[in-house]
Amino acid sequence: MRTLRMWSGLILLSLLSIGILNFSSEIVPGKAFDSTASFLILGLFAFVVMRTLRVPTNIYLGMPVFGWRFFLALVLTVNLIVVQIRGEAFSELDTQGWIHGVIFLSAIAFAEEIFSRGVVFGVLLRHGLVVAVMGSSLIFGVMHLYGYIGEYFDPWRAYWHVVSAIAFGVFACALMLVTRSIWMPILLHTFSNAGLLFTDIAEVKEVRAKPISVDLWRGITYPLPAFATFVIPALILLWINAGTPLHPRLRQLAIKWRLIESEEKLPVQES
């Protein structure tokens, strides 16, 4: 019964969050920052919920814990960011576009990460790490269906986005655990969404007006490479976070890159 209440509460919080994004723009003056303000309001709402519920993830509101684990996580994070933003024409943005863009992307990342990794992950963590990672990532992914509801709903595009978002969520959870800070997933999320700065809404609507026609197998498997791109590094980070000793070859590389001292005993991460 308690588990049912917990999941019901998380679903209600998710629906309320979508409602905040839908209706907050109506009470925020001006048009230029409507979306930004909506996400900021959602982020502040999630932050208040996070603090009120006193979820375990409150300990991740501080700065990252630096060490060899952090630097390994940073390398994987930078690699994923490069994969996400390569090919984008950043030179097309002027100074004002950069400023507005960074604020907008930061607001999205702050709202979604505080809600998904802060609130949802924190609530589910009481039921075990696997439940927290998978449950929060699943809710994070499904909530992205919000952007596809409407006149031009395409089930394949929606499915691909949800699968990719779930994979991103798994990595974001692992990144937060290893670095001991929710700000690292927020940073990753901010840069990963950089493509939004170059999105032409009219062009998106035109593309979505043409439903995708693919065979069933192709449609199901299409997002799997992107899924693996995030999940495999996430599993590596979760493995390390469990306190598993490094393979001797990896230990040699860590010593060579001066991430650890040759005489240093690799610390076991506290759970």
List the helices and strands and how they pair.
Elements: H1 2-23, H2 34-53, H3 68-85, H4 95-124, H5 129-143, H6 155-179, H7 183-192, H8 201-208, H9 216-221, H10 224-241, H11 248-256
Helix pairs in contact: 1-2, 2-4, 3-10, 4-5, 4-6, 4-7, 5-6, 6-7, 6-10
Walk me through the structure.
- By secondary structure, this protein is mainly α.
- The protein has one domain (2-256).
- Helices cover 67% and strands 0% of the residues.
- It has 11 helices and no strands.
- It has helices at 2-23, 34-53, 68-85, 95-124, 129-143, 155-179, 183-192, 201-208, 216-221, 224-241, 248-256.
- Helix 1 (2-23) packs antiparallel against helix 2 (34-53), helix 4 crosses helix 6 (155-179) and helix 4 packs across helix 7.
- The longest helix is centred in the middle third of the chain and has 30 residues, at 95-124.
- It is globular, with a radius of gyration of 20 Å.
Q: Provide the succession of SSEs.
A: HHHHHHHHHHH
Domain unit count: 1
What oligomeric assembly is this protein in? single chain
Look at the structure and give the mean pLDDT: 82
Structural class: mainly alpha
Whole-number radius of gyration?
A: 20 Å
Number of helices: 11
> Got a strand count?
0
Task: Write a compact overview of the structure shown.
The protein is mostly helical and 271 residues long.
Based on the model shown, name its key terms:
single chain; 271 residues; mainly alpha; globular
